[in-house]
Amino acid sequence: MKQLILSLALLSFLSLRAGAEEGNTSFNQLLKHITTVSPEALAVPEPSIDKSLAQNADGRFWVTVKASDARARTRLLEAGMDIVEINGENSSGFAGPHTMDILSSKAFIVTNRMTIAEYAASQGKDFPAADSAYHNFKETTDLLKQMAAANSDIASLFSIGKTVEGRDIWCLRINSSAKGETPSSKPGSLYIGNHHAREHLSNEVPLLFAAWLFDHKNDADIKKYINTLDIYIIPMLNPDGAEFDIKTGSYQYHRKNMSTNSDKSRGVDLNRNYDSWWCEAGASTYPGSDTYCGPKAFSEPESQAVKRFIEARRNLKTHISYHTYASEILYPWGGSDADVPAKDKAIFEKVGAEMGKLTGYLSHKSSEMYIATGDSCDWAYASGGIFAFTFELDGRGFYPGAAIITSTVNKNIKAAVYLLSVTDNPYKAI
Predict the structure, then answer these.
(1) pTM for the full predicted model
(2) Which of 10, 36, 147, 279 could form a disulfide with 293 if both were Cys (CB 3.0 to 4.6 A apart)?
(3) Any idea which residues carry the catalytic annotation?
């Protein structure tokens, strides 16, 4: 995937080109560069439809089903439907052949269905051959390496583990006194993107947040956070899936990782694979489903890597897991209707509301939308007492084009910095 807009600016900023002068472009100038190019250049390209998907070779459909409340939506998840949009009593999302058979029963009312290719066309675009301002795995890796090298006094880069296909899961650490995997007693904050392959915007936000922190490292408040906190940024947790989603030059609407399942289907939903009420309500046991929970909790190398990472760092206090798209901030529990203990609930409500003001997102308990078990933030809170939030970034669809990057990054940087401001002691927020 060639970089035509944002990536070229970032490459210049981070001195990836030979002879480039370090720091010759500020973060604000990078985003300004995006806004000054023509709308046509920012739009998602529209090449011809991938013929195999046009024929619906993978058997998936975009369906709309009647579901009047969270309980009904949870039943849809358990049937294997990947709920993407909720509009009143209607829930829309992806469903494969197994799920379509279940949805055709009298227990569900399907009001509309179309192939993925028809759905893409209805969104005003076909499957794009490239989305030039977004970063693939190599580009993300190169930028992380350059940022760490250019800021070696406060930054280091290491892999938290390997994926199914052997790619490194890179973690950028910002800490003024500890490097790599050296333990730290400083309060920690963790930012993770790209649990789900097709959610490419969720890689851009933490990646550009890192660039912003380095650009502002001498600001009084940011300097204080760098000196007193232990900050970790993992922009791309699921590089295998992200690469599969783009490798043919046509988006595949792929959500999962790239494990080969017992029925030869591909992928486990990493955000249903954590050991938090694993594979109970709101998850599918059918391997072909987009919300397949896996053969057991932590069956996947990617979720295992997060488990090892968090369990080895008991200093972690706050966490954001980035996803798309709903413009919402979610907090535990997602796998149960129950509330967390009252004092922690007050923190989640207060901190979530403050970040909601900065982003314009609605903040609420995750299970109010539907119950979904095996969730990473539920597990992080249950396992480590971490105040963990799921951010559903804004956008219209999983492939919203490049023009959305500027506004989404800016508002989410504000929220990410706010979270740093309470990381030393989240309870001070109330």
Answers:
(1) 0.86
(2) 279
(3) 392
